[in-house]
């Protein structure tokens, strides 16, 4: 057993076999011990805020001992996290790294689906906090690549839980992902001849509200070269009096409320100019000069909720005009989408095109342009669109596993609190309400090369830990190798125009990202309002 003394008299036990084996020495109940541990933990947090580091470390150690006695694995991880903060602020980076890795180990033994929602929330929040702080500690030691691996591991842990839930054989898929290596990440960039950009939002719970976030950025070039940059969020916090997360949320609310109307094209739109300064300018010199070269963004948390296409440089040019853009929830997810693409049966050739189910569930209005969109796309590929009252779950869902391309032009909803209840609207029947939920999609075994959700708000979901629990993630987990979703409510007519352009382009060029980019640029000319062309994003694979 190793003990670390950090200027106080209480040693920290690090041997994992002893984490839960100590005989309880305190003569009161487990609940009382947990309450006492929480008191010590809160005291330590306040001492950290007051920069009383030795006292804070001792308080966190007292909390750790009590949580160990009560075998509270989440509590143990919380204590180790704040011990890590104390050691980090004290300049003891190696010791902090040990504490945080021990915290990850403690959480690994907690069920990813506990019965208590409170335990689930605490587990996810603590897990995210430890992974974030560990990245800071590694960067402070100059361990740039190790920090990238930790960033990926935090995402992979969430994705593995998702895949295992949607695929009974998910463990075989995620085993290779569980401990990604730098060599694997470099190989993914090289195989795709793409530039990968991974963002990591690092929260500091001890800082002032509008100064509590940092942004780490890694660029992995097609050559395998890895560059690290840190974005300066101080200006954003001082000028806007907000964090990056809140700033993104405000932008999305403005988009949803249509606060930016027609006529904003080619004008510098302050929010998208500022996001360009924060997200793109720090790494602009590492981006490809060829506009057809793939740039794959790996956003996190609130950044999952914004499009990259309309970000504007100092001249007002959109990022879309300079680059071909894709996204993914994690670099290692690209390994999953590649496998599903490579292993797709040749027999899967059907196109499933759905538009304007009628009647719509709930009080949603009909989408006549969506029906025209579906008919036009179906004629391009010599199939029949399924529309109106025929477009029920009983008709659509059985065809999905046998379809190579699935296009759903209908309403979509998201649930901010329970992302798995996000849903696509189909025609209701006497025995079914018409909503195809993300939870139901997880139970499907898809073989789709492409799924397009040409609907309202389909890309949004609840942010839990490091993941976006939404329709797009459910589709990827269920076997789709690429998904196109919208990130806000889109006007009916411009959507139909953009989608018809996309499929026409796809017949000439099988590269989905390039086909989507060209369609968005064409739509921009006809419908210059940013809301009309910038909402769609491609997730996953670009080639068939």
UniProtKB/TrEMBL annotation:
InterPro entries: CHAT_dom, TPR-like_helical_dom_sf, TPR_rpt. It holds the Pfam family TPR_12. Residues 271-541 form the CHAT domain. PANTHER family: RAPSYN-RELATED, TETRATRICOPEPTIDE REPEAT PROTEIN 28. This is Tetratricopeptide repeat domain protein. It comes from Coleofasciculus chthonoplastes PCC 7420.
């Amino acid at each position: 057993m190793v003990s670390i003394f950090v200027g106080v008299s209480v040693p920290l036990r690090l041997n994992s076999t002893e984490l839960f084996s100590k005989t309880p020495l305190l003569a009161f109940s487990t609940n009382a011990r947990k309450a006492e541990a929480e008191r010590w933990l809160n005291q330590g947090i306040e001492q950290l805020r007051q920069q009383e580091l030795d006292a804070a470390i001792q308080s966190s150690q007292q909390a750790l001992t009590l949580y160990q006695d009560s075998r509270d694995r989440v509590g143990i991880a919380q204590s180790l996290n704040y011990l890590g903060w104390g050691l980090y602020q004290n300049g003891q980076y190696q010791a902090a790294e040990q504490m945080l890795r021990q915290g990850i180990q403690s959480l690994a033994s907690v069920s990813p689906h506990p019965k208590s929602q409170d335990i689930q929330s605490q587990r996810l929040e603590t897990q995210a906090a430890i992974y974030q702080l560990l990245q800071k500690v590694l960067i402070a030691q100059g361990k740039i690549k190790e920090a990238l691996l930790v960033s990926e591991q935090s995402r992979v842990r969430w994705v593995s839980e998702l895949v295992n839930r949607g695929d009974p054989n998910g463990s075989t898929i995620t085993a290779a992902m569980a401990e990604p290596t730098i060599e694997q990440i470099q190989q993914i960039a090289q195989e795709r001849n793409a530039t990968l950009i991974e963002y990591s939002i690092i929260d500091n719970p001890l800082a002032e509200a509008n100064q509590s976030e940092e942004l780490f950025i890694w660029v992995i070039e097609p050559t395998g070269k890895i560059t690290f940059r840190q974005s300066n969020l101080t200006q954003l916090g001082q000028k806007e009096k907000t964090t990056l997360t809140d700033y993104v949320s405000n932008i999305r609310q403005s988009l949803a409320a249509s606060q930016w109307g027609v006529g904003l094209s080619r004008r510098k739109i302050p929010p998208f100019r500022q996001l360009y300064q924060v997200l793109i300018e720090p790494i602009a010199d590492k981006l490809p000069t060829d506009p057809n070269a793939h740039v794959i963004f790996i956003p996190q948390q609130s950044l999952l909720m914004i499009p990259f296409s309309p970000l504007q440089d100092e001249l007002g040019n959109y990022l879309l005009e300079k680059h071909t853009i894709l996204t993914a929830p994690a670099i290692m997810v690209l390994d999953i989408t590649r496998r599903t693409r490579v292993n797709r049966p040749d027999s899967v050739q059907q196109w499933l095109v759905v538009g304007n189910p009628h009647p719509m569930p709930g009080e949603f209005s009909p989408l006549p342009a969506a029906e025209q969109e579906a008919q036009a796309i179906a004629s391009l590929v010599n199939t029949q669109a399924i529309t109106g009252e025929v477009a029920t779950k009983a008709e659509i869902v059985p065809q999905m596993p046998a379809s190579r391309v699935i296009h759903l032009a209908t309403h979509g909803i998201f649930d901010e609190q329970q992302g798995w209840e996000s849903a696509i609207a189909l025609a209701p029947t006497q025995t079914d309400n018409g909503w195809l939920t993300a939870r139901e999609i997880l139970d499907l075994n898809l073989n789709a090369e492409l799924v397009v959700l040409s609907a309202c708000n389909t890309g949004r979901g609840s942010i839990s830990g490091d993941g976006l629990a939404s329709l797009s993630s459910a589709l990827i987990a269920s076997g789709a190798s690429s998904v196109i979703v919208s990130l806000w409510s889109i006007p009916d007519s411009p959507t139909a125009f953009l989608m018809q352009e996309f499929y026409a382009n796809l017949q000439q060029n099988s590269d989905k990202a390039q086909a989507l980019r060209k369609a968005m640029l064409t739509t921009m000319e006809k419908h210059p309002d940013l809301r009309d062309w910038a909402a769609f994003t491609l997730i996953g694979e670009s080639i068939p």
